Amino acid sequence: MKFKAFVYVSLKSGYSDPEGDATAEALRGLGYGVEKVRASKAYQVTFEAKDMAAADALIDEMCRRLLTNPTKDDYRYELSEA
């Protein structure tokens, strides 16, 4: 079966986010009352697995092994049949 996952990666609380800080400052410069911005990454991954449980295990493994740094990143994903 073919599956599609949307993986969202963001910095854990307490880690500096220079990209988010620069974006917040730029938005303030444009007149928006922005308090804080945190930058995130999103990945769309399409892959094969035998069933939903196997797909869930595979995408979680992909996140832990390559798509995130467990020391500094949090992640979540949405998984569906493609």
| Amino- and carboxy-terminal Cα gap | 8 Å
Overall tally of domains: 1
Mean pLDDT: 97
Low-confidence stretches: none
Number of helices: 2
Q: Might you state the CATH topology name?
A: Mth169, Chain: A
Strand order of the largest sheet: 2-1-3
CATH hierarchy class name: Alpha Beta
Percent helix, as a range, is 25-40%
- Report on the biggest sheet: 3 strands, antiparallel
Structural class: alpha+beta
Number of strands: 3
Q: List the helices and strands in order.
A: EHEHE
Share in β-strands = 25-35%
The rounded Rg comes to 16 Å
CATH architecture: 2-Layer Sandwich
What general form does the structure show? Answer: elongated
The CATH superfamily title? Phosphoribosylformylglycinamidine synthase subunit PurS
Task: Please describe the structure with a list of short key phrases separated by commas or semicolons.
82 residues, alpha+beta, Mth169, Chain: A, 2 helices, 34% strand
Briefly characterize the structure.
With 82 residues, this protein is α+β, with helices and mostly antiparallel strands. The chain is built from two helices and three strands.
Written description of the protein model:
There is one protein chain. This protein is 34% helix and 34% strand. It has 82 residues and is of the alpha+beta class. It has one domain (2-81): Phosphoribosylformylglycinamidine synthase subunit PurS (Mth169, Chain: A, 2-Layer Sandwich). The chain has a three-stranded antiparallel sheet, covered by helices on one side. The N and C termini lie close together (8 Å).
